């Protein structure tokens, strides 16, 4: 495979393919495992992720890349094959989460700034040797009374740009993820407020990317969709979400960016798929629109697996189904009938 940033970025958003976000940090994967009554041991985490990466049909046809956590990129499958090699063998690209998490921001009560720039150059060099060709850094912007503030948006956008520049220096495509939360502690805002905050955030992020000399052709944007908060009294319909998201992105994201791969953020599996498909139906668009889902790709598989080896085939079927539906959505060809037929 070509090592050019532009080529890697294009491969990450190849037609009908998207990204599997399997980079849950230890705390998050524990929560996921708690929900199915499975203890979060290193072996269980390995078994679960190996099950996903060995789902051949899904991986080969629909998954262009997998975002891994530090532990996972170093882990070996039961037969001794490095998990990163399983991903490569399926024709998919291993990626790595490199941020150190969103931490309370000093002087900004209730807001967070993502840390992890110290020593990042050296970590990226090591991850490159371990097979990673793209990375991910997630900034978290919460909407509540009086927040977000300019100080918080600016600090997060600056860190994202510094991270992206370091990635590119080391031959790694940065996924730039500024997530405006739909499921924060309050989350009663409507879709228009989400639009306003997302527009503000994206414009700030692209200003900072320009200032840090980030090559837009060699990056992928991972944004939220324009949706109401999960506790809002009224939720936007699917067409409205698609129309507002595309309008917001068109006004903020330069056409030089090869692709936009959404997070699911707490939407149901089917909503995340339907929204993506509807957006692609609004084309032609200046960039590819695809998925980089965590929960919306894994929830059904996690339930089906339940930590039992005898459920591996059923869990792989559940994952393959979601991957196929999202692969169709990435080209605007998903329908509710196809969902049911399967
Ligand atoms: C898979 O979850 C990722 C890591 O989260 P933590 O660092 O909090 O453990 C997360 O960044 C994820 O990649 C994105 O939010 C997309 O996942 P969803 O579930 O929102 O589609």
In summary, what is this structure?
The chain is of the alpha/beta class and 342 residues long. The protein has helices at residues 5-12, 26-34, 42-53, 56-62, 70-73, 83-89, 120-129, 150-169, 191-211, 238-252, 269-281, 295-305, 312-329, 336-341, and strands spanning 18-21, 63-68, 93-97, 102-104, 112-114, 134-141, 173-180, 220-221, 259-262, 288-293. The structure holds 2-O-methyl-1,6-di-O-phosphono-D-mannitol.
Model regions low in confidence, pLDDT < 50 over at least 5 residues: none
How are helices and strands ordered from N to C?
HEHHHEHHEEEHEHEHEHEHEHHH
Mean pLDDT: 98
Helix tally equals: 14
Structural Rg: 19 Å
Distance between the termini: 34 Å
Coarse shape: globular
Instruction: Give the DSSP E fraction (strand runs of 2 or more residues).
Output: 5-15%
Structure description:
The chain is of the alpha/beta class and 342 residues long. Helices cover 47% and strands 14% of the residues. The chain contains 14 helices and ten strands. The strands form two sheets. It has an eight-stranded parallel beta barrel, surrounded by eight helices. It has a two-stranded antiparallel sheet with strand order 4-5. The longest helix is centred in the middle third of the chain and has 21 residues. The two termini are 34 Å apart. The model has no long low-confidence stretch (mean pLDDT 98). The site of 2-O-methyl-1,6-di-O-phosphono-D-mannitol has 16 residues, from helix 12.
């Amino acid at each position: 495979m070509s090592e050019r940033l532009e080529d890697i970025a294009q491969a990450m958003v190849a037609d009908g393919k998207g990204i599997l976000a399997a980079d849950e940090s230890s705390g998050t994967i524990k929560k996921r495992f708690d929900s199915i009554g499975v203890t979060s041991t290193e072996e269980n985490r390995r078994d679960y992720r190996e099950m996903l990466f060995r789902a051949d049909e899904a991986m080969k046809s629909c998954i262009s890349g997998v975002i891994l956590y530090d532990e996972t990129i170093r882990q070996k499958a039961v037969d001794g094959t490095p998990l990163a090699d399983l991903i490569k063998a399926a024709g998919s690209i291993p990626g790595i989460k490199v941020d150190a998490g969103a931490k309370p921001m000093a002087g900004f009560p209730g807001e967070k700034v993502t840390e992890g720039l110290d020593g990042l150059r050296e970590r990226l060099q090591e991850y490159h040797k371990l097979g990673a060709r793209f990375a991910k850094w997630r900034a978290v912007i919460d909407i509540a009374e009086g927040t977000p503030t300019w100080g918080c948006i600016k600090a997060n956008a600056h860190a994202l740009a510094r991270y992206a520049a370091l990635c590119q220096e080391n031959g790694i495509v940065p996924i730039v993820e500024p997530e405006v939360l739909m499921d924060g502690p309050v989350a009663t805002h409507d879709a228009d407020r989400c639009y306003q905050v997302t527009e503000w955030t994206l414009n700030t992020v692209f200003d900072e990317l320009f200032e840090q000399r980030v090559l837009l052709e060699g990056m992928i944007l991972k944004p939220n969709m324009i949706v109401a908060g999960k506790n809002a009294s009224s939720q936007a319909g699917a067409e409205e979400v698609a129309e507002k998201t595309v309008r917001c992105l068109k006004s903020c994201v330069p056409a030089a960016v090869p692709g936009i791969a959404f997070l699911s953020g707490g939407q149901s599996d089917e909503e995340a798929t339907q929204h993506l498909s509807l957006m692609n139906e609004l084309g032609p668009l200046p960039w590819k629109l695809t998925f980089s889902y965590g929960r919306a790709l894994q929830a059904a598989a996690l339930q089906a697996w339940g930590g039992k080896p005898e459920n591996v085939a059923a869990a792989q079927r559940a994952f393959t189904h979601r991957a196929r539906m999202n692969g169709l959505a990435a080209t605007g060809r998903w329908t509710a009938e196809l969902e049911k037929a399967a």
